[in-house]
Amino acid sequence: MSHVLKAVLFDVDGTLVDSNDAHAHAWVKAFADFGVTVEFAHVRRCIGMGGDKLMPEVSGLEEDSPLGAKIAKRRGEIFKTEFLPKIQPFTGAGRLVAALKDIGLTVVAASSAQKDELKALLKIAGAHSVMDAATSSDDAEESKPAPDIIQAALKRAKAAPQEAVMIGDTPYDVTAALRAGVAIIAFRSGGWSDAALAGAIAIYDGPWDLFEQPLLRQRRA
User: Fold this and answer.
1) Residue intervals in the chain for CATH 3.40.50.1000
2) Does the first or last residue of the chain, that is N or C, have fewer Cβ atoms within 10 Å of its Cβ?
3) Which CATH number fits domain 20-86: 1.10.10, 1.10.540, 1.10.150, 3.40.50?
4) Cβ proximity of 30 and 75 under 8 Å
5) Calpha distance 27→188 (Å, rounded)
6) Catalytic residue at 64?
7) Distance between CA atoms of 144 and 65, rounded to whole angstroms?
């Protein structure tokens, strides 16, 4: 039985905006402020997870522990003041989201970012005004690679898993989407290899690459 595509679920960091390195640097600085040394390369490989998964992976600390909560709060402060003003959108990010909406699809952000950060990042991407809805870490019990955020986004989109496709840039997006029963298209723009993105139905360089695909051009014409 075939299913009609109704919705596209977008990751944001590394997918629509070039922010993965910034997030990693913010985490490293926040840990250092509390005397905890973590390797940038290790943190960078965990970007795409939420803090609930990243913190124990890189430091052994739980996000809901007293120290973990302080570090997580500090990370947010550092990211918003030092890094957020400098983040750039990927070429074609806003145009891709608008083009998919123009052909009748529901577009929903499905991000592990915190709600206030997600709003700012979508504005940078030029997608805030065209997204039909957005789900963030606030809408999920567990962050990616758990499927919670994808499932919450499906509810916002009023779509069944078979009626949606996810677009993301990390192995955690791939795993989360597949656990939710959603097919995923992956972008290389987040810095991951094709092998790391195995499980995606297609892999493109970034929003600009998918925007220029013949099928989308034909539908836009």
Assistant:
1) 7-18+88-220
2) N
3) 1.10.150
4) yes
5) 22
6) no
7) 20
Instruction: Give the integer Cα–Cα distance in Å for 134 and 36.
Output: 33
Q: How many CA atoms lie within 13 A of 8 on its CB side?
A: 20
pLDDT per position in the chain (221 positions), as tens?
457 999 999 999 999 999 999 999 999 999 999 999 999 999 999 999 989 999 999 999 999 999 999 999 999 999 999 999 999 999 999 999 999 999 999 999 999 888 999 999 999 999 999 999 999 888 989 999 999 999 999 999 999 999 999 999 999 999 999 999 999 999 999 999 999 999 999 999 999 999 998 766 655 55
Phi and psi at 198, nearest 5°, equal -55, 140
Write down the pTM of the prediction: 0.94
CA pair distance 109, 97, nearest whole angstrom: 10
Which SS3 state, helix, strand or coil, does residue 164 take?
strand
Residue type, 129: S
Catalytic-residue membership of 209: no
Task: Choose the catalytic residue: 13, 52, 139, 169.
Answer: 13
Nearest Cα to Cα of residue 147 among 122, 113, 182:
182
Q: How far is CA 5 from CA 123, 159, 215, in A?
A: 26, 9, 14
Select from 164, 140, 138 the least CA-distant residue to 152: 140
| Closest of 102, 97, 81 to residue 33, by C-alpha | 81
CATH topology of domain 7-18+88-220: Rossmann fold (3.40.50)
How far apart, in whole angstroms, are the C-alpha atoms of residue 180 and residue 199? Answer: 13
